[in-house]
Q: What sequence folds into this?
């Protein structure tokens, strides 16, 4: 296995030379023809678009701004890791529950307390950055000890379960919305299981489009539900500046949202390990940079009205399917996303998606987040016969699903924060030498 090192980087220059290769496995420092690069880059845009657009809608953010900053964040990542780690940075779902809790967002339309949420996301980015600097100085061993698979899986599952009531509420306004939401769920499932070729890898976006058209038919066409209003879409120009928003800083919101940084670290660590396994080379030498790049991208995004960002499993899936790991694809995809951010028409189209369709998509996505924990536990052979693992997971799941809230004077920690810190602290206590001696 080849290990990337700083001396290798110095020998080759800061960025790779991207040698042309048109067949077989394409490594990060290689590239396809420019025509193939454009097509493959667009495929990565499609892969990230579903989640990158849905996440801001669920929090009441402007999707145009989120898409724009996903591109900006990806370019930041590309530069900081010296073009050697293939990744796309999109909207993070880890922020949804805490943003909703911090802002009291009702689930439809623009979030009236968006600046408060942005301040909290900046706080998460700063904490994330501090962690990344420690990693760059000391290595990754302490993170792997602090966040073993049992704890990481518990936190991931708690996020999905904490979000479940949001998804159910979105499809429960009336019977029509419920059936549209369930139809959207069914379409996503059928596409994921039975669709041919590339379509099978795009179930979320295909399901959202199909649900939209279904709603349009039965509501606007047959009058079974509230029609979609296209006035804003018609009035929106094709080109224009996004609606940037500045953050405002409130201690309680920062204290609630900042712990998400721990989740982003675990997520990014897993993604870097996955890409390293696929390419057959260790990327640990770039992990500190990758974490720092993600933290900086999150801060930059939040300073302009965007969501916090993270490396995207969807794009890792595309790489796994195509065996094309060229980092140039992500630079191109980032530029396309930035251009889309300057199209108010695109943003208005996204905002016209009915709540019932978003709810149906959310049921699947939030369930997938929770189910991802099972994959983490299975792949890492977590032993649930071990009481330390079992109790840590049990407590985290209940705290997250029940939204266990802890108050410390003016500060409040919601269910996700309680589950995250509870799992970390409880696991360390239960696996400490003192606990082992007592056993």
A:
């Amino acid at each position: 296995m080849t290990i990337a090192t700083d001396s290798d980087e110095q020998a080759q220059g800061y960025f790779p030379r991207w040698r042309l290769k048109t067949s077989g496995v394409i490594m990060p420092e290689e590239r396809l023809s420019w025509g193939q690069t454009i097509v493959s880059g667009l495929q990565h845009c499609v892969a990230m678009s579903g989640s990158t657009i849905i996440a801001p809608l669920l929090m009441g953010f402007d999707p145009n701004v989120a898409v724009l900053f996903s591109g900006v964040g990806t370019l930041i990542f590309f530069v900081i890791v010296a073009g050697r780690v293939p990744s796309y940075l999109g909207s993070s779902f880890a922020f949804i529950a805490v943003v909703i809790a911090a802002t009291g967002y009702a689930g439809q339309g623009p979030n009236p307390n968006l600046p408060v949420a942005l301040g909290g996301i900046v706080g998460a980015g700063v904490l994330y950055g501090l962690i990344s600097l420690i990693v760059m100085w000391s290595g990754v061993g302490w993170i792997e000890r602090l966040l073993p698979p049992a704890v990481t899986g518990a936190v991931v599952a708690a996020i999905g379960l904490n979000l479940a009531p949001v998804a159910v509420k979105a499809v429960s306004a009336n019977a029509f919305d419920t059936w549209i939401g369930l139809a959207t769920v069914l379409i996503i499932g059928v596409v994921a299981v039975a669709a041919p070729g590339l379509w099978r890898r795009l179930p979320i976006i295909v399901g959202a489009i199909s649900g939209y058209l279904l709603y349009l038919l039965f509501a606007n066409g047959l009058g079974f539900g509230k029609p979609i209003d296209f006035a804003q879409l018609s009035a929106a120009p094709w080109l224009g500046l996004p609606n940037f928003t500045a953050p405002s800083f409130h201690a309680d919101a920062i204290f609630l949202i900042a712990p998400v940084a721990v989740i982003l670290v675990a997520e990014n660590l897993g993604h870097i390990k996955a890409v390293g396994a696929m390419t057959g080379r260790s990327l640990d030498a770039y992990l500190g940079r990758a974490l720092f790049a993600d933290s900086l991208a999150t801060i930059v995004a939040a300073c302009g009205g965007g969501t916090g960002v993270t490396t995207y499993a969807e794009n890792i899936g595309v790489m796994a399917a195509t065996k094309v790991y060229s980092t140039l694809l992500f630079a191109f995809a980032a530029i396309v996303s930035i251009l889309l951010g300057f199209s108010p028409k695109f943003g208005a189209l996204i905002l016209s998606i009915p709540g019932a369709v978003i709810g149906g998509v959310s049921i699947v996505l939030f369930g997938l987040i929770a189910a991802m924990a099972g994959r983490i536990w299975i792949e890492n052979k977590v032993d649930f016969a071990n009481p330390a693992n079992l109790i840590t997971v049990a407590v985290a799941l209940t705290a997250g699903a029940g939204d266990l809230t802890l108050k410390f004077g003016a500060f409040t920690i919601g269910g996700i924060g309680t589950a995250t810190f509870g799992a970390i602290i409880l696991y360390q206590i239960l696996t400490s030498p003192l606990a082992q001696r007592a056993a």
Q: What stands out?
A: Confidence is low (pLDDT under 50) at residues 1-7. The chain has 20 helices and eight strands. The first strand starts at residue 2 and ends at 3.
